[in-house]
Design goal:
182 residues, alpha/beta, 2 domains, 8-stranded mixed beta sheet, 6 helices
């Protein structure tokens, strides 16, 4: 396990062990980051879930507000495996659903996730955007956009798109159904 993975695991354990303590520190950290960005005249954006799929919209600090309400001027974004999350009415939170065909029942949730207003990230073995002619940039009937340019999914066109990601690292050898063939 890398240092980053270890740190993410420790943070996730802290969250589940002491939600209010974790939230207090998260608020301090986001506030510092927001001030850092403000001094440089850049929009702060924060991805809360690196390895977890915490439903931040349901977590209230001191029973009051969630993180999005506390920081309405910060853009938050995440990937999720939960197809029916109701977040499209949270203006500063953007979710991209993470597709996998490793479990065919899970894969059937693609339409549900897109109906919720999310785009769906799909990992392809080949670089979809370079391999498939532009006029064919559709997958399962949905338009495909290049997700490898950056990780700022909130800048993508709104819902109903497939975000094509090229398999990297261990994913190149994945045969579980997570990585799709073009």
């Amino acid at each position: 396990m890398t240092n980053v993975q270890t740190a993410r695991q420790r943070k996730a354990e802290w969250f589940y062990r002491d939600k209010q303590g974790f939230m207090a520190q998260l608020i301090v950290d986001v506030d510092k980051f927001r001030n850092y960005c403000k001094k440089r005249d850049i929009q702060p954006c924060v991805r809360l879930n690196g390895t977890t799929d915490i439903r931040w919209e349901l977590i209230r600090y001191m029973g009051e507000k969630n993180i999005f309400e506390i920081f309405p001027d910060v853009q938050f974004y995440d990937y999720t495996k939960i197809a029916n999350r109701k977040c499209k009415d949270i203006p500063n939170y953007h979710l991209t659903w993470s597709y996998s065909n490793a479990n065919p029942e899970y894969a059937k949730l693609l339409d549900k996730a897109l109906e919720q207003g999310m785009n769906a990230a799909v990992v392809f073995r080949s670089n979809f955007i370079k391999v498939v002619p532009k006029c064919w940039h559709k997958w399962q009937g949905y338009p495909v956009i290049d997700g490898d340019q950056d990780d700022l999914r909130f800048l993508d066109p709104k819902g109903g798109h497939i975000v094509a990601l090229y398999a990297k690292g261990k994913a190149k050898k994945d045969t579980s159904g997570f990585v799709q063939e073009v």
